[in-house]
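Thread: Metallo-beta-lactamase class B, structure

OP (GT): Posting the sequence first so everyone is looking at the same thing. Length is 277 residues per the record. Can we get the structure tokens written out before standup tomorrow? I want them in the notebook alongside the other entries.
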Amino acid sequence: MALLSMAGASMAMDASWSQPRKPFRIYANTWYVGSEGLSAILITSPQGHILIDGTLTRNAPMIEANIRALGFHLHDIRVILNSHAHHDHAGAIAALARDSGARVVASVEGARELEAGGNDPGDPLYGDVPRYPAVAHVETVRDGGVVRVGPLAVAVHDTPGHTPGNASFTWRSCEGSRCRAMAYVGSLTAIGRPGYRFSAHPQVVASFRHSFRTVAALPCDILLTPHPDAIDFMAKVAARDRGVRPDPLVDADACKRLAASASRAFDAVLAKERAVH
């Protein structure tokens, strides 16, 4: 399972971040409406929908077109959630909220970051990532809180480290009597601006440790991430669509493995910093 750094992805995958992708059903009422390289997830119900993440600012028309292509209406989106307030996941949220009329909801720290357009001094990448249109009037939900729209219930889990407000989300999607635990895990990579040392920020280190434990314990039949390539998601979708069985997307240990892999990568970052200094 590859864990792509944001910096590495920005160099190697920038074209895919805005590359159109035909929207598709992930499972039951959970749909993929993002680009080839950046996730945006739509959870639907007859009483209204929840959208998770907005990708890049310039991708707003693409995401809106994808939602319409599936037969859904923008004005039925009631809530937009954000995993973390970097430009590649939050850039389009202001436009999507304006066009849909949806409320924007984020973690307490995430709301502050969104309202600042990503200009957060507490972000390890502060000053080294692009700004984006600030989001006005972001509502907050605390760790363990649940965002509801009609029958939809999305639980919010604080998973800070990558950014102070990084969050993950879990919900259930059902096809008839068969339900799956869906998990959208915010980025767990330790990427900092030039000269930034994670080992010099004990609270950030503690935040990462907390997040790895949290993610490992999530209900998680189907794992989703902001960068689909981080878990080879598109390859699994292609295999599923070819009829590979069992369904490659269904893996109850996926969150545990992601957390373990991210923890090892973080340990390697700290070891490298100790070796240099």
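GT: Both are above now. Quick notes for whoever picks this up: Confidence is low (pLDDT under 50) at residues 1-13. The radius of gyration is 17 Å.
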